[in-house]
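Long-time lurker, first post. I've been practising inverse folding by hand and with some scripts of my own, and I keep getting stuck on stretches where the structure tokens seem ambiguous. Below is the full token string for one chain I'm working on. Before anyone asks, I'm not after the true native sequence, just a reasonable design that respects the backbone. If someone could post their per-position residues I'd love to compare against what I wrote down in my notebook.
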């Protein structure tokens, strides 16, 4: 699994796509280090233990064949703690409010960033296409040099947006396949 490395105040945090459920797993030890806190302290809190148990129950109730266990929520490997995205969000809020907001935005961008790029490009493409239709009518009735230039500009925007949509789709697929 190759990491997606994001920086919080110049500190790297490694995010991974879990091969188990295609969800995000985070290096929580890197998160804790920034704030001089320990993951073990957080994991031993009664509130955290309750959260983990409820999360396990919820995840298993959503599956036809329940197979989530504690290792899918968090695990420790070579003194590094990794957490499922949902537990990591709770952990981020325990660390710092500023970090919690950054973490939410980062996870959203990892999960939905390519979709946002796709829809933004789609909006540009639709606007450019409507402009091209309008300009084509003008060019057929009373062509001006400005309208010709505007038409080609709209056509270029349309083509660039189409390519941006294809890149976003390709990036999303490569993101999903990299997880495996």
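-- Answer (accepted) --
I ran through it position by position. Result:
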């Amino acid at each position: 699994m190759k990491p997606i490395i994001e920086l919080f105040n110049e500190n790297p945090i490694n995010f991974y796509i879990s091969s188990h459920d295609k969800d995000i797993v985070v290096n929580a030890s890197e998160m804790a280090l920034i704030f001089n806190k320990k993951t073990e302290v957080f994991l031993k809190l009664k509130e955290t233990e309750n959260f983990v148990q409820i999360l396990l129950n919820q995840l298993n109730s959503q599956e036809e064949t329940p197979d989530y266990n504690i290792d899918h929520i968090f695990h420790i490997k070579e003194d590094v703690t990794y957490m499922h995205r949902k537990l990591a969000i709770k952990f981020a809020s325990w660390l710092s409010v500023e970090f919690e907001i950054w973490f939410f935005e980062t996870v959203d961008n990892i999960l939905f960033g390519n979709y946002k790029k796709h829809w933004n490009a789609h909006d540009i493409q639709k606007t450019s296409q409507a402009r091209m239709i309008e300009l084509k009518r003008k060019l057929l009735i009373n062509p001006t040099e400005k309208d010709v230039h505007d038409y080609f500009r709209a056509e270029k925007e349309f083509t660039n947006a189409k390519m941006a949509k294809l890149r976003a789709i390709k990036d999303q697929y490569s993101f999903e396949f990299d997880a495996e």
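A couple of notes from the structure itself: Strands lie at 4-8, 11-17, 24-27, 74-77, 80-84. Helices lie at 28-34, 39-44, 46-61, 70-73, 85-95, 97-141, 145-178. Happy to go over any region you disagree with.
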